[in-house]
Every structure is written in structure tokens, then in C-alpha cells.
Amino acid sequence: MSQISYHRPTALAEAARLAMSDPDARILAGGQSILPSMRLGLLAPTALIDLGAIAELQGVRSDGRTLTIGAVTTHAAVAASKDVMTQIPALAQLALGIGDAQVRNRGTIGGSIANSDPAADYPAAVLGLNATVRTSARSIPADGCFTGLFATALKPGELIAAIEFPLVARAAYAKFRQPASRFALVGVFVAQTGGSVRVAVTGAGPCAFRCKALEEALARSFTPQACDAVRIGPDGLNSDIHGSAEYRAHLIPVLARRAVQQLLA
């Protein structure tokens, strides 16, 4: 068995230096993706850089315009945050629906976003709420963050520090979950600010994406019925034992309708 170095820095700058110095090191946040991959022999890092002791990466802060969530804040902490529950309740609901209690108490928002699993929930919120991903080096706008299957705009050695979510008029998330993993077979996040509507989809493609056809339909008429007229093509969507590309395409406007219904109830 090969040896793995273990580092537990106490500052983000220190963690970034460690990551830059060893391209084969891996970042340990909640460990919900990296540790299973190591057990299965899919990943063999030379070192683990544990972010758990970096205080600046933890917690939820609000300035009345933006919610800033530290990268190693757990899903359970996001779901339980009074600021999240009162200012962006859809985000608290989304966090509460991730995995089970064990996953929610270990997994982190930054780890989920950096991993860009095609069925993860948080990427839909990042896109739907037009969040900004703040890293150790720069700020990445939501629309430029997710680039493909398990791929993001993060550069080698670049670490997520926090995610900044602007407050919106209203938002909702509807998910058709895979019953065993509770990942999203398809999930749709709808957010409205004035006359602007953003619709983000997860679970359906290689990574989270915005659905412009639904955004345009809801901008014209923010009603459940507006979703019914939108037809999504299956090209480029995921197809597996849980659902075909055609099935996922069908679910997108259905779940958008449910999200809008939540907002109008």
C-alpha cells in the first residue's frame, strides 16, 4: 500500500500553497466523494489536504444583500441556518434534501460544487441564484463555473473559499430523486427577481445547466401553465439504468412546474 501524506492547514493561503506544490494531492473537505473513490481504487493521491481546521472557510454570514457560505460549511449547517431559512428558504430546503443525516453532517457545500457531480443539488442553486464562487485566487461567476462532467473552471491548486448568494425575490427547488442515493435524477431550481427568471437544471446533463426555454416562458408568464408548453429535447442528456435521456427531458418542465407551484401556493 502506497503512503499518503496528510496535511491539516489552519489558513486558506497555506492550503493553497500545499495544493500548488503537489499536483497529485487532493483536497479533503467532507470526504463524501474522495474517500469512496479511494476505497474503490479509482483515486490514489500522494497527499490529502484537510480543510477542516480553517476557520475562515466555515459558517454563514449575511449583510442583508448577500448570503456568504464558507466552503467547508456542512449541508446540515446550511439547512439549519436561520439566515438561510429566512432569506433563501429554497436553499435550506435543498440542503435538507441531500443524502441522509450522515451525509449532511459530513458533506460540505464547497466540496459538492468543486466535485461537480452531474446529479448534485448545489450546482443548481449556484446557477439558479446567480451566485459567485469565491476562490483562493479570484471570483468565478455562476455561469462560468461548471464546465462538464466532474469539471469546473477551478485551476490546479485553486481552492473554493466561499459561495456568495445574492438575495432574490423568491426561489424554489423541485427534485425527482433517485431513491437509493437521493441524488437528483433531475432537479430544477427556479429563481425570480423582478422581471428576471433563472431556471437551473441538475441530474439531466453532464453538469448543471440553465434552461433558457423555461426562463423565457416564465419571464413572459410566471405560472405553472407556462412550463407545460416547453418541450426539451433529449440530445446531450444523461441516459442510464435509472432513466433515459427522453425521460429526463420530460421531467425538466414537469419539475419546473412544481417549483413554480411552490412559489405561488
Provide structural commentary.
Strand 11 (170-177) and strand 12 form a beta hairpin. The protein is built from 11 helices and 14 strands. It has helices at residues 12-21, 34-39, 75-80, 82-87, 89-96, 101-106, 109-115, 122-128, 212-220, 224-228, 245-264; strands at residues 5-7, 25-28, 47-50, 60-62, 66-70, 132-135, 139-141, 146-148, 151-152, 160-166, 170-177, 184-193, 196-202, 209-210. The protein is 34% helix and 25% strand. The mean pLDDT is 96. The chain is of the alpha+beta class. It folds into 2 domains: 5-166, Uridine Diphospho-n-acetylenolpyruvylglucosamine Reductase, domain 3, CATH 3.30.465.10; 170-264, CO dehydrogenase flavoprotein, C-terminal domain (Enolase-like, domain 1, 2-Layer Sandwich), CATH 3.30.390. The N and C termini lie far apart (57 Å).
The chain-level mean pLDDT equals: 96
| Percent of residues in helices | 25-40%
How much of the residues is beta strand, in percent? 15-25%
Main sheet record = 5 strands, antiparallel
Order of helices and strands: EHEHEEEHHHHHHEEEEEEEEEHHH
Which class best fits the helix and strand makeup? alpha+beta
Described by the principal axes of the CA atoms, the overall outline is: globular
- Reported CATH architecture of the largest domain: 2-Layer Sandwich
Give the spatial strand order of the biggest sheet. Answer: 4-5-10-6-7
Distance between the termini: 57 Å
Q: How many helical elements? A: 11
The number of strands is: 14
Overall domain count: 2
**Which CATH C-level class of the largest domain is it?**
Alpha Beta
**CATH topological fold name of the largest domain:** Uridine Diphospho-n-acetylenolpyruvylglucosamine Reductase, domain 3
Radius of gyration: 18 Å
As residue ranges, the low-confidence spans are: none
